[in-house]
Amino acid sequence: MSLNETKNHDAIGDNICKAVSVVYQTYENLNRFFGELDNVGAKEGFVPLVPRFIRWKSDADPGGWAISSFIKPFQLAKDPILKNGSEMRNGPIYVVEALLSDESKKYVGRKPVPQITLGKFTFDFENRPWTTISVSDHWFFYYPTRMQDKFDIEQSGENWISKPKNEKVTHDYWGLKNVVWKSIDLVPVNSREMIKKSVFDELLSFPEVK
Fold it and tell me: Which domain of life is it from (predicted)?
């Protein structure tokens, strides 16, 4: 092996180490973000539906080896508890997604930089078996703002609205009626004040959709 080849391999190895270090540091920053998200949310009347967040991982698919989408679902504490023995409430589910991957450029309503997607998910809870949300339910809140083959997705002012295309999709997504959502840049949301203003105030401002 020549000296130039050795230097080239060393440079590649160094770049890999630096890239992994950046990912770990980003995860540390997200850990602090989600901690503050819970603190600020509680003061604004929001109740988290999972202790940490929900995400997709896969051993078989390399795309699932590192997490790029972290979703935290909330409901409002003032909404009544469902009468099915669960702790979930009869009201919208408010979702905060931290999205790191530039894969977002494939989808409407997002930019190819780290984003926060804010969503207000409205369901028909009456005849659906809602009892809890698990970590594996990531897809449930991920795809309605992306899959245009299953959802009609249209812009409405600064927001976007997603609606199931047919009854089968509604059934598959446990009575989902619609989602009002928008995406904002993640990096500037770096303080309690910004979390309140850019996340929870925005969630509360989302309109009702018929």
Answer: Bacteria
The answer to whether 91 and 79 have CB atoms below 8 angstroms apart is yes
CA torsion 85→125→135→25, rounded to 10°? Answer: -120
Domain that holds residue 139: 3-205
- Give the whole-angstrom CA distance, residue 120 versus residue 170: 16
> What's residue 18's pLDDT?
83
Q: Is residue 210 part of a domain?
A: no
pLDDT tens string 93-148: 999 999 997 664 667 888 888 999 999 999 988 767 677 898 889 999 999 999 99
Where are the alpha helices (H) located in the chain, listed in sequence order?
A: 3-43, 138-142, 167-172, 192-195, 201-205
38 in any annotated domain = yes
Q: How many distinct structural domains can be found in the chain?
A: 1
Query: 168-180 burial, b for 16+ CB within 10 Å, e for fewer?
Result: ebbeebebbebbb
Q: Backbone phi, then psi, for 208, in 5-degree steps? A: -75, 145
Q: What is the pLDDT of residues 51-107, one digit of tens each?
A: 989 988 766 777 667 788 999 999 999 999 988 777 889 999 999 999 997 664 667
The answer as to whether 50 is a domain residue is yes
Within 10 A of 160 (CB to CB), how many other CB atoms are there? 20
User: Are 181 and 162 in contact, with CB atoms under 8 Å apart?
Assistant: yes
